[in-house]
Write a structure and sequence with these properties.
This protein is α+β, with helices and mostly antiparallel strands and 308 residues long. The chain has 7 helices and 9 strands. The protein starts with a helix and ends in a 24-residue tail after the last helix.
Length: 308
């Protein structure tokens, strides 16, 4: 970018009435010295560019903040999957008569990311409800699944390691699937929190007018981290969506609105706008060495910001 050329090209540009008033106050006349016109025009461009930088920094920060807030709600909220099913549990043929399975009616299960609330009819009359984390379920009821060779949740069949039991009822996920979902979502959320902190530094630096260089390499790193965060939080959401789809095909299963996964999905969608914005910025600045520029006016002077 040729700053000198840009300055010279502005000498013929007319000044606004406000600028004439400023010069009249400074010099006592509206006859602006020719030598002052390029300087004043450059200062005006720099001022506009600073305003644009502040707006962009605020946009990225608040976008990331909104995404992280919804992801945190999804992290603790119930209702990632809520279903009411009828179940059949087939006893192990070596110890029991597998021809007469245990039948459970109206098993209500509300899956969160870390725990589940389960209610079902006991003795055909009383409804028993209990809430427990998946880790505790595996410790307390881990041996229970060995008593059954197959579990049918509606028309979903769970055999082998997929038999994950909670107080006499089968769960739609295996314990290994639950651990995988929790791990992916937690890592994605932590990355989103880290990028939020970096965008906070970015916004604070621009607002305070600090001048340093934030290289394209750092922009590229933030792009990679935000994409990784989006992928890690949306994979668990899609896993729950797929299971929900299977349950909906079974007329024995009543599936309700998954509020928890909706919050997580919207948060992931908002977070996806962050790498898109960064990518557009990198495309706009591909011919410069600075971190922020204009896609429409190549004569604008770039603004640099200090990284704390």
């Amino acid at each position: 970018m040729d700053t000198k050329g840009n300055v010279e090209n502005t000498s013929d540009q007319p000044l606004s009435p406000e600028q004439y008033a400023e010069f009249k106050e400074d010099y006592g006349t509206t006859e602006i010295p020719i030598s002052q016109q390029p300087i004043r025009a450059k200062d005006n461009r720099d001022k506009k560019k600073n305003i644009g930088a502040v707006r962009m920094a605020g946009f990225l920060f608040w976008l990331n903040f909104a995404g992280v807030l919804l992801l945190l709600v999804g992290f603790v909220a119930p209702g990632w999957l809520t279903a009411k099913t009828d179940q059949k549990l087939y006893r192990n043929s070596y110890s029991y008569d597998s021809g007469t399975p245990l039948h459970l009616y109206n098993v209500y299960q509300d899956y969160a990311l870390w725990y589940i609330t389960q209610c079902y009819e006991h003795d055909g009359r009383n409804t028993v409800c209990e809430t427990m984390t998946y880790r505790t379920i595996d410790d307390v009821y881990g041996e229970e699944k060995s008593d059954y060779e197959k579990i049918e949740i509606g028309e979903m069949e769970k055999v082998g390691d997929d038999r994950f039991m909670f107080h006499g009822a089968g769960l739609v996920f295996s314990y290994s699937e639950v651990v995988r979902v929790e791990t992916l979502y937690t890592i994605g959320l932590l990355i989103a929190l880290f990028t939020l902190y970096k965008f906070y530094q970015f916004r604070a630096g621009v607002t305070d007018g600090k001048r340093t260089i934030l290289s394209k390499l750092k922009w590229a790193l933030l792009l990679i981290l935000t994409v990784l965060s989006v992928v890690l939080v949306l994979v668990p959401v899609f896993m729950f969506v797929l299971v929900r789809g299977k349950l909906e095909k079974d007329y024995h299963s009543d599936v309700y609105t998954p509020f928890g996964s909706v919050f997580a999905g919207i948060g992931g969608g908002i977070m996806a706008l962050v790498p898109i914005s960064i990518f557009m910025q990198l495309v706009c600045c591909r011919n410069t060495d600075e971190y922020i520029c204009s896609c429409t006016d190549e004569s604008d002077v770039v603004v640099a910001v200090e990284d704390d």
